[in-house]
Amino acid sequence: MVARYQQPSLPGSIWQIVNTLVPFFTLWYVAYRSIDVSYGLTLLFSFVAGLFAMRSFVIFHDCCHGSFFASQRTNDIVGFLFGVLVLTPYNAWRHAHAQHHARSGDLDRRGAGDVWTMTLEEYRLQPFWRRVWYRFYRNPVIIFVFGPTIGFLVLQRFAQLNGANGPRERASVTWTNLGILAVLVLASFTIGLKEFALVQLPIVAFSTPIGVWLFYVQHQYENTYWERHKEWDFTDAALKGSSYYKLPKVLQWFTGNIGFHHIHHLCPRIPNYRLEACHNENRMFYEIEPLTIRESLKSASIRVFDEDRHRMIGIQQPPEGALI
C-alpha cells in the first residue's frame, strides 16, 4: 500500500536541496552584511536561516535512511556534507537513529537514539540523586533550550558522548569535526571568526531547540505507545507511538513533512517530500488522530510512563498516594 511511495525522485531531491541551501546561504550572507547595520537585524536573518538549517537536517535525516536518493553512495556523500552543515556526524547519527527506529516504543530496549524515559515504577525505585538528575534532564529549559545547543555544538564532537561505538561511526565523528574545522579555517581567512560566530551561533541556537522539540513531541505525548518487548509490535509502535503532528503549511514545509511521523516510522524509506501524498491517498491513515500545536504543548510537562494506565504522566502525586 505504501511501497510505491518509497522510490525517490532525482529531480525532487535536487530541487529540495536547491530550495533549501540557496535561501540558507543567501540569508547567512545577508545576516553577515547586516552586522554593521544592526545586530538585531542579524538575529532576525539568522532566525529565518535557522528554519532552513532545520530543513537541511531533514535532508540529512533522509540520507541516513537511504531514502533521499536511489544510490546509497549518493546518500552517503550528500548526508556527510549536510552533516557538516548541521554539526552532526553522518554514520554515527545514522546508526543511533536506526536503533531508534528498531526499538521505538519498546520498554525493554530503551536507550539508543531516544529521549531518556523512565516508567513511573522505575522512577520511584531510583536513589534520590538519580531522580534529581532525571528531573533536571527532563526540565523544559534544559531539554529544549540549553541542551540542544550544547548537544550539537559540543557533545556531537566526541565519539564517547554521542554513542559512536563502531570504527565507522567513530571515524564519522572525526571526519565531520575536520569538515567543521575546515569551515572555521576558511572563515578565519575571509570574514573572520568573530563575524562567523555572530551569525552561526544564533542559527544553531534558534534551529536546534525547534528540531529537538519536534523529535520530542513525535514520541513523547500522553497517549503514546510503550509496551514490554513480548507485547511490542512494530506496526503499532509506528502508528500509535509516533505522532501525526499537524502543522500549518508553512511550518510543514520548513520541517520537511516530518509531522507525518507515524508514516515515516511505518516506512522510513519514503522520502520526506512524498509523505503527505502517502497520507492523503491512503484512507488507513485517516483514523490517526492528529496532534495540534496547542495540544502538543502539554507534552512539555510529561516525565514518566505509567504502565498501569498506559500513558505518559507528569512527576506528581499518583492516585495511590505514594510519594514520588
Question: SSE layout and pairings?
Answer:
Blueprint: H1 10-33, H2 39-64, H3 72-85, H4 90-103, E1 118-119, H5 120-125, H6 128-137, H7 140-153, H8 167-189, H9 193-217, H10 234-241, H11 249-254, H12 261-266, H13 275-280, H14 293-296, E2 304-306, E3 311-313
Please outline what is shown here:
The chain is mostly helical.
What does this structure look like?
By secondary structure, the chain is mostly helical. It has one domain (3-306). Helix content is 57%, strand content 2%. It has 14 helices and 3 strands. The protein has helices at 10-33, 39-64, 72-85, 90-103, 120-125, 128-137, 140-153, 167-189, 193-217, 234-241, 249-254, 261-266, 275-280, 293-296, and strands at residues 118-119, 304-306, 311-313. A 3-stranded mixed beta sheet has the order 1-2-3. α4 crosses α8 and α7 (140-153) crosses α9. The longest helix is centred in the N-terminal third of the chain and has 26 residues, at 39-64.
User: Over the alpha carbons, how many angstroms does the gyration radius reach?
Assistant: 20 Å
Largest beta sheet, briefly? 3 strands, mixed
User: What's the overall average pLDDT, rounded?
Assistant: 93
The DSSP helix count reads: 14
Strand percentage lies at: under 5%
Provide the succession of SSEs.
HHHHEHHHHHHHHHHEE
Provide the low-confidence segments as ranges: 320-324
Helix fraction bin: 55-70%
Q: What sort of overall outline do the alpha carbons produce when their principal axes are compared?
A: globular
Question: What is the SS-derived class?
Answer: mainly alpha
Widest sheet, order of strands:
1-2-3
As for the number of domains, it is 1
Distance between the termini: 46 Å
| Total number of strands | 3
